[in-house]
Amino acid sequence: MKTNILTLVLALLGFIFLGIHYSSLPWTPMRVAGVVIGLPSLALLVLARIELGSSFSVRPKAQSLVTHGLYSRIRNPIYLFGSLVVVGVLLYINQPRALWLLVAFIPLQIYRACREEKVLETKFGAEYQQYKSRTWF
After folding, report:
1. Contact 46, 8 (CB under 8 A)
2. For 102-118, how does the pLDDT look when each residue is reduced to its tens digit (9 = 90+)?
């Protein structure tokens, strides 16, 4: 749990640094869109990480099946909101061309979600299938 908190604090410090570093750029509609997309996504990403608690791991593990909070509607909120944070940051720092990175990043997130799904399905079987049937991604 301490590692989870430490990584969250480091990520938040990184976002604060980006916010300050690029704050002198003019406020264009693209930068505003970046903030509108990025900040709520960051808050939801942090919430998803907290809700996952000790079940979080870099490699797929089936410690417990988390089905409350954001996980009651979305199976992979960390992947979803992490991708949206990347979009928001790229727009905020005025690098819309870098959105091409999503061509590689999104399939990677889908691949990771599929690997995780197999592990969870193996351990939790019908319970996971029922959970999967009532949630999105």
Report:
1. yes
2. 999 899 999 999 999 99
Q: Which residues contact 132 (CB under 8 A, 6 or more apart)?
A: 75, 117, 121
For residue 42, which of 18, 72, 11, 19 has the smallest C-alpha distance? Answer: 11
pLDDT in tens, 30-72: 999 999 999 999 999 989 988 887 666 656 677 788 899 999 9
pTM of the model: 0.86
Distances (CA, A) of 29 to 36, 39, 40, 92, 98: 10, 15, 17, 10, 17
The Cα 23–Cα 136 span in angstroms is 36
